[in-house]
Every structure is written in C-alpha cells, then in structure tokens.
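new request in #modeling-help
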Amino acid sequence: MNSNGDGPAQSRETGTLGKLMVLLDLVTHADAPLRFTDILALAGQPRGTLHRQLSHLVEEGLLELDGDGRYAPGLRLLDFAARSWARNEFRLIAEPHLADLQQATGETVHLGVLRGQSIIYLDKVEGRQPVRMYSQIGNASPCYCTGVGKAALSLLPAESLGDLIAGLSFTSFTASTHVSAETLLEEIREIADQGFAFDREEHEAGIRCVAAPVWSEDRTFIGGVSITGPAYRLSMELLRQWAVPVQLAAGRIMEGMRVRLGPRR
Amino acid sequence: MNSNGDGPAQSRETGTLGKLMVLLDLVTHADAPLRFTDILALAGQPRGTLHRQLSHLVEEGLLELDGDGRYAPGLRLLDFAARSWARNEFRLIAEPHLADLQQATGETVHLGVLRGQSIIYLDKVEGRQPVRMYSQIGNASPCYCTGVGKAALSLLPAESLGDLIAGLSFTSFTASTHVSAETLLEEIREIADQGFAFDREEHEAGIRCVAAPVWSEDRTFIGGVSITGPAYRLSMELLRQWAVPVQLAAGRIMEGMRVRLGPRR
DNA sequence: AATTAAGTTCCAAATAATGGAATAGCGATA
DNA sequence: TATCGCTATTCCATTATTTGGAACTTAATT
C-alpha cells in the first residue's frame, strides 16, 4: 500500500536487499527526516524487524540517524553517485555535444536515460547562472510527461512499450499531462515517425521542450537530448525549428558511442 | 591495485547487506567496468554466491550489466543521491555563506563533512567556469591530507581522534602528505588551538587551501569550510589572511544551524 | 506517581543465503 | 564442423540470517 504514483518502478523483491531498498526509497522520498514510528506506519513491518533493518542501513551509511531519532538519507549515497556519474561513458561522450547545443540555442540542454518507468537525468548544461549541482542531474522524472521520456519511449519495440505503458499510473501534473494510455501511445507513434518529441507544458506549467531520442549500440542506454525553456520565450514554432539541431546532436552522440565502443562489440 | 588509501571506512559486516555493499564498493571504486571474473578475484567469494549477489544488485538498479557482461555502477544511485543532497539541511543552510565567501575571495569554496575516515564534499562554489556537476560534490577524500579533513579532526575529542588516526593507512599523494600518525596528531593539536587548517599541497601538488571547522549542534555533521586554489596564486601569506573570513563564514553557518534547528532540540 | 507512548532487545521458527558441483554458452583453434 | 578452453549460469542440500511476536527499557505526559 506504499505505492505512490511514480514510485519504485521494479522491485522483484530481491530477498533481503529488496526489502531494504524499499526502506531506502521511503526515507529518500520523504519530504523531511522520518522518525521510527513514521517509517513503521509506512513500511508496515513488525517493530523488531524494522528496527534491525534500519540499524543495518545506518551502519552502512545509507541512512543517517540524528540526535532526535530521525532518519535521513546517508551521505555515503553521494560518494557512490559521484563515482557512478564521473565514469559514465554515455555521459562523457555526450558532454561536448550538449555544450554545443547549448551554445547554439542559448537554452538549457538535458541528457536523460530511461530506467524502469523513469527518466534519470544524466547531465545538464545551462546558460546563465552557474549550474546548481544536483538541481536536475540524478533526478528521476516520469517518462510519460517529459520530452526526453517520450523520445525514449518511441525507441521501444511495440511489446515492451505496451508492457511499460500498461504499468504506468498517470499523475496529472498540469492540464496538458497525458492521463490515458491511449493518447500517450498515439503520441509515441507520432514521435517514432517524426523522430522528435515535444513537451507542451506537460510536466511543469510554463515549461516547454523539444527532445530527440538517443541510444547506445547495445541498448543499455535508451534516452534523449532536449532543449528546455520557458514557454514565453520558446514558441512552438521555435521548438519545431530546433528539432533539427537537437536531432543532429543526438546523432553525433550516437556516432561518438559507435566510435568509442563499437569496434570491440 | 584499486585500493587507494582511503578505501571502505567502516563495514561492521552487516550480514547480507554488508556483503552486498562490499561488492558495490568494489565496482564503484574500479577504474573501469568489471567483468564477472574480475569481481570474482577481488571479492573472493564462491562463484554461485557472487553471481546471485550481483544479480540482486542489478535487479535493484544499484549495478548495471552491459551487453559485454561488464558491471558498472547503476543509475539508481544517482536518484538516491540527488534526493539525499537536495534536502540536506546542513548544506542548505551553508549555501549562502559559501557563496558570500566565494564572492569575497574569488576562489573556490568547499563544504565537507567527516564520515568515517573520509571527508565527503557536500557543496562547492566555483568562480569562473560553470560548475561541473558532481565534479567534487559527493567525492570522498582522505581526512589526513585535506584542509577540511584536518579542520574536522581538530573537533574530535582526544579519544575518538586517537582511534580514528590509529585506523588510518597513509598514502603519500605528494611530498608534503602526512605519512605518520605522530606528525598528523601534532598538526591537529595546533589546528585545534588556532581554529583553522592549511592544506600545503598535501593532497594534490600545486593546490593549497585554508579551512575552518564547522559542526552542527548535535554533532551529526562535523566538517569544515575551505577556500582552495593554485599555489602560484595563493601564497601562504594570503591564506593566512583568509583564515579570518573562512572562520567567520564557518561561524555564520553554525549560527544558521542553531537558529534553524536549535530551538526544538 | 501513574500512565501512555516510543524505542530497543530477545529468541524459537521461518526464510533466505551459501557454496560445491554440474550445466550451459561462446570463441578460438584444429 | 568438432573440440578445446574459458566464462558465465543454474541447481540444491546445508547452513546462516532474517523474522516477528512479546517482553523490556526509556522518555514524555497527565
């Protein structure tokens, strides 16, 4: 009963680990540090069991327990993530092309990949203000209401796509958010035809984007590149024009992957 | 040979979880994705056991297995970290004071906290180029050769300090790196007296810094703020002058924590 | 002081992890 | 194409860990 819209995508209940990950999810998704009793209610586990599980997570640095008995995400997670990010080949190869795209348009550029039902943003290049770390990078967003997400979906074979969409539970973030599998599927087909996707203020009011699909040779990374900005500055006409440079950038990233990894595969 | 001095700090072998975390550590610390056999050699576990453990980690998105059978850190780690970072109160409170310090000096400012034997960088404010995400944030560095690290150590009570230092294994990163508990302990005492610490190119040749200790009321966060830069630009005299603004910034951060959290504790 | 709530510890029973061995997959070589 | 050698995967009786109800401690409240 702890499912909440875009929550944990997979969870085949991997024995002990799976149960612990559910707890980590609970704590990291909470708006504020949780007390033991709060988690007890959310997790629906016996007190003794829950207590030991939390203790183990704290001992490993995945959670932290402050002086008031409140559990917060542990900083060891940062270390893991920093390594994960620093060495990610897909991101490393995409980096210069994202920068070029940002230069060409002056707007914010994102790189994201599909993981389960979510898009995880791997990189972001912003124009004006110095980038606010982790502001977007690492964030998981729904696939059905983001440009990158829909671009990624358009790459899936019919069957996987059907399965994935069947498993979605739609949250209406704005008036334009898709709330039915039918209309979403219809747009995905259109995107597959034309080779790029729009986000027409579907995730956040006043924010539009145009995205193109990107994937790695071995399909480990299925995602997209996007240009994002405020609706008042980015007319739909302008976005339509930008579809071309976004697709070109996507193409260059894929070419980069082929050169870097292709020969050996 | 991928052990680099500041490896896994704790690990009380928390049953099943502990063993899995050792594997996660192995993979995230590796310079390149590892194949099954590589991990087999490093982990020293029976094949069957290792295989199932890795499968569980992959199922949970903590590791990823590419088409060539190579294991890399999983992107789910990014999502966890992004949440962990975004809501960290210590960082949120410190943020404006770090920015002020950067403005005042024009050099790079760091905020780090002690976790086990490592300093984990929570934030970074850089002057020139737009911040390269995760570049430093989240990174774990040794406590005995960084300004923030030594500042943090100077806050520990004698006994804990002794225990921690006794458990260190020193890696000589540069000619100036402390390589003995004695000289380190001596400098820590000096730092405790004067209230600030230098890094005299001890971690990276050509890089100096001055740091001041910061801690939260409940001692959950013990760390420091620092100004870092190239030795040719930052003379020791200049660093000595900057000790004052760094200590002031540290004081303001602690005051911020007191205001925000103090009343209720 | 009495009462309620919050957190911690205990231990027999249930469950999951272990690890040795057999099996399957895949390139390279003959 | 058959065979070898290496790598990865599956299987299952044994072993170790987790489970969860209950008792216990501690802190807050009336």
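bot summary: Chain B has nine helices and nine strands.
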